[in-house]
């Protein structure tokens, strides 16, 4: 079971050294991104590949992919919660974020309620916000104009802004789900 980034980026471009998604959740906000490393000669192309992969999620996401991702997520959560340290850290984060602890079965229920449309709408909303770009290493100077192109592509009056309003329904359903689970 491989991620989209593995099958569509690492397996397709021999000059890519690594490519993975990451996320961090905070109160009322979060961080979502892709970290990639490549041969410096391909830095501009790497940025374009990453952008295309992010855009593709708003258009093309199968139920099978989402179901597979749900199973993987549930497995990761169960494995992580076997560690007392990870479990204690998770409990603290939950209290800081939600004001209460979410049980394992509640986590699974929340994950199982996610649909491909929810993910597409969420990504459209993410891509309508102002992006951040961090560059490190040899070849970074070749991307000096890249941030301007990112602003034009995402968050700067892009077509994704119109779609982002439809994600408000998905976000309110998730919030309602959290409130319902708390009772």
From TrEMBL:
<comment type="function">
    <text>Substrate recognition and binding subunit of the essential mitochondrial processing protease (MPP), which cleaves the mitochondrial sequence off newly imported precursors proteins.</text>
</comment>
<dbReference type="Pfam" id="PF05193">
    <property type="entry name" value="Peptidase_M16_C"/>
</dbReference>
<dbReference type="InterPro" id="IPR007863">
    <property type="entry name" value="Peptidase_M16_C"/>
</dbReference>
<feature type="region of interest" description="Disordered">
    <location>
        <begin position="154"/>
        <end position="183"/>
    </location>
</feature>
<comment type="similarity">
    <text>Belongs to the peptidase M16 family.</text>
</comment>
<dbReference type="InterPro" id="IPR050361">
    <property type="entry name" value="MPP/UQCRC_Complex"/>
</dbReference>
<dbReference type="InterPro" id="IPR011249">
    <property type="entry name" value="Metalloenz_LuxS/M16"/>
</dbReference>
<protein>
    <submittedName>
        <fullName>Metalloenzyme, LuxS/M16 peptidase-like protein</fullName>
    </submittedName>
</protein>
<feature type="domain" description="Peptidase M16 C-terminal">
    <location>
        <begin position="1"/>
        <end position="72"/>
    </location>
</feature>
């Amino acid at each position: 079971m491989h991620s989209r980034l593995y099958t569509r980026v690492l397996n397709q471009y021999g000059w890519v050294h690594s490519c993975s998604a990451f996320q961090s959740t905070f109160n009322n906000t979060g961080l979502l991104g892709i970290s990639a490393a490549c041969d410096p000669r391909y830095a501009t192309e790497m940025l374009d590949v990453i952008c295309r992969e992010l855009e593709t999620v708003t258009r093309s996401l199968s139920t099978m992919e989402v179901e597979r991702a749900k199973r993987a997520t549930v497995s990761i959560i169960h494995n992580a919660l076997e560690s007392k340290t990870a479990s204690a850290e998770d409990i603290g984060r939950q209290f800081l974020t939600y004001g209460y602890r979410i049980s394992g079965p509640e986590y699974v229920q929340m994950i199982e309620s996610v649909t491909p449309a929810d993910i597409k709408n969420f990504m459209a909303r993410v891509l309508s916000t102002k992006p951040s770009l961090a560059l490190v290493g040899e070849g970074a100077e070749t991307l000096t104009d890249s941030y301007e192109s990112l602003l034009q592509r995402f968050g700067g009056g892009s077509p994704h802004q119109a779609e982002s309003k439809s994600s408000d329904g998905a976000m309110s359903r998730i919030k309602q789900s959290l409130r319902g689970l708390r009772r």
